[in-house]
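Next comes a single protein record:
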Amino acid sequence: MLQLRPGCECCDKDLPPDSTDALICSFECTFCRDCADRVLKGICPNCGGELVARPRRPAAKLAKFPASTERVFNAACQQGAATQAD
């Protein structure tokens, strides 16, 4: 089951479970659309995988299967993305 992490790993923007702005890779690394497009160019800086829209869990299921509260933040993300572009 997807963790539905609560924030962007790159800029720490909040990404609630119903956000249409959240993108993930196959390892569930989570990024906002702005960072995914502008900074990362659609590629996960952690694994090199494709970033795709994160599915939204129906509100009725969130009570039984809540989203993760664990935040993953990597301040070096934007710097690492700049290095990859070089």
